[in-house]
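Notes continue from the previous slide.

Worked example: a multi-chain complex. Inputs as given:
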Amino acid sequence: MSGSGVEGIVSDYFARLRRALAPLPRSRRNQLLEDLREHVTLALSEESGLSVREILEHVGAPEEIAAEALAAAPRRPARIRRRKALGLATAVAVLAAGGTFAGIFASSNPPPAAARTDAAVVPVANSDCSPQTNPATSGGPSPALTAKATEVAHGTVAGYGWSLWSARGQSGAKGLEDGGLLIDGRAYGLCPGFPNPAELELADVVPGTGIVYGVIGYPGLATVHLYRSTAGTFDRGTPLPAPSVTVVHGVSFFIGTLPGSACDYPSLELNSTSPGVSAEHNLGFGRCTAGRLVPITASQGIWQLPPGQFPAGFGAPGGGGAGGGPDGPPGFPAPDSDCFPQTGAATSGGPATTLASKATEVAHGTVAGHGWSLWSAHGQSGATGLEDGGLVVDGRAYGLCPGFPNPAELELADIVPGTGIVYGVIGYPGLATVHLYTSTAGTFDTGQALPAPAVTVVHGVSFFIGTLPRSACAYPSLELNAAARDGSSQHNLGFGRCVTGKLVEITSSQGAWSVGR
Amino acid sequence: MRRGSIEFCVLALLRDEERYGLELSRQLAADGLVTSEGTMYPLLARLRQDGLVETSWHESSQGPPRRYYRLTNEGRAALDAFTVQWRQFRDAIDNLLDGGRAR
């Protein structure tokens, strides 16, 4: 579970809902998530006297909502997948001559022109989540799986026989992910983490012993390391026994046991290194049920990393700051900086005198008819200087809170009635392209494209500022995709209640980024 | 029967005024027409996809902005057609039920 407060309970609910809705096409899934998030936000904003748990009980079990949606949903047309695959292939063809590592934007939209991919390491396009991946329907009889798939590997784990099945007519990771795993004659799914090539499932099949398995979608034999962790971070806790790894269909399938029951692991960290590239994945798990997969309640990942370089730490919930990890690997922007007090939603928008006394003005302009100036902390440079400094709009100070180790950060301000103001820093060197979209918190989905903000190089990195078509209060989530010469970054933020004259509270934050040359 | 007719109940709630999702779902849940508030959203999505309702965001002085649903011309026509069919259906069933009781 990711938390017991209101935010944690709601976050867990939506993670469960997202998982239950996974079989739906992305656009339908996102629409439902957006609708239900609005419903819950409104219900919470009322002074009804109901607790958050009671409100969510009225909304209904995610599985029940998903069943209603699936009952009415047309099957996902195959051409959607082909189109997605084609888009990726096009990007590879155009950009393969570029650098070595770059992020892939988790979106059905094409990546910004400056994004680069590496043909040698791009995993296959997305595949469906087989029904057996749903914890509620996992562990069922085998014919549902074996009737549509071919056995491609087998072995034993904790004394139980397993066999791996690939969907007929498909290959690579996609074949395995559209197929599934039999353990002791019961079917369990593999749900892709696309575009992250790494995925993991935790099964409560053997009393007292968790079973983990998954696919690393990069070509070749991967080394796979598992750790205890904390959901929502990339922290590595106690190392866990390494699973066995086999190359199947050209990618890596792994399976192994954990020292404790599957119920004993609220979070796992999966670090894998395939030939020439690494991927990092952090998963949170919910309540376990004997004989079934343990529900995944949180999931985040970074991929296309240099081999063996796994950033630790991550932005804490609430947008306040920093992962607190050690210096990032080579190629990352400057180490962490402080979250300036003006970044707190409640303390933002105060008089600018404090900021001006400890910082130097480094840029200025106008946005929505209001004058702004950007200030860098005395004695500092680069993104750190800006993030320890801040922004002044109409004489009021607003902070910049770093998303370290993610080089991108964004703030949403409710300063101008009817017009949201967004600004932030892209910590990669040089001029970045910045794209903003409406989104769904907790995803990397891109919804409606929003006006591109103005971008300026300040202190060698990119500062951006712009307006949104509607009030800052109208955006429950934004997706920030940025690309610069040395890498790209993806950031998804969820926003809470807006207050006139203040920054909008950041209620969730996740990112993926890449390392430059 | 409920699954087939519930969408017209939504259209009926929108016949005279715009409503936002929370309002609609609570009304239908209170009437026992949906098992939980959340199960109405797949239905609303389908109505929107079919062009029977359309939505717009409204600011609210009492909280976050709300997505309001309203009938389209197609939705109103579909509701009118269903109303005629339903009344015929209801009358036919009533006749049968009343006849059954009489015997």
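Summary box: The helical segments of chain B are 2-13, 21-30, 40-49, 73-102. The mean pLDDT of chain B is 84.
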